[in-house]
């Protein structure tokens, strides 16, 4: 299964990255740190509606979008800033408008890390992204409690949830990629 892990944390060695990499260690895949790429915000020009592609020539268009289109699953991780996802995560989400309908039935997983307040809002924003794209949401999401660098290692519940998310993505991948048995195909109502 082809899985991509998107980190919306601007910090190096962030708590968000830590949890994403735990899920990656269980399910495999590719890690992308948005802060390492040149990603402009959506300009709401709506040119993508006419052209079928984004007109902004940056790393989001040239590297990240082609990667998303090739994946079976996308795991998005974000720190919680002002009770929501980071600016990097939000820019990523907005820039996928040009590929709406093309992520349908891919698997989505959410990971957020914050002090306490805003965790639910950030999870909701990521899961809303998955639902807008008609993706399959793996579970309710992983919520880590941390602030200082490395503090996430104390949150064993979040670490275990990140592992379970990896297992769930693998489970859904098997279901998603499994062909229907002949007896179900032959007995469908017409």
Automatic annotation (TrEMBL):
<dbReference type="InterPro" id="IPR029039">
    <property type="entry name" value="Flavoprotein-like_sf"/>
</dbReference>
<protein>
    <submittedName>
        <fullName>Flavodoxin family protein</fullName>
    </submittedName>
</protein>
<dbReference type="Pfam" id="PF03358">
    <property type="entry name" value="FMN_red"/>
</dbReference>
<dbReference type="InterPro" id="IPR005025">
    <property type="entry name" value="FMN_Rdtase-like_dom"/>
</dbReference>
<feature type="domain" description="NADPH-dependent FMN reductase-like">
    <location>
        <begin position="1"/>
        <end position="145"/>
    </location>
</feature>
<keyword id="KW-0288">FMN</keyword>
<comment type="similarity">
    <text>Belongs to the SsuE family. Isf subfamily.</text>
</comment>
<keyword id="KW-0285">Flavoprotein</keyword>
<dbReference type="InterPro" id="IPR051796">
    <property type="entry name" value="ISF_SsuE-like"/>
</dbReference>
<dbReference type="GO" id="GO:0016491">
    <property type="term" value="F:oxidoreductase activity"/>
</dbReference>
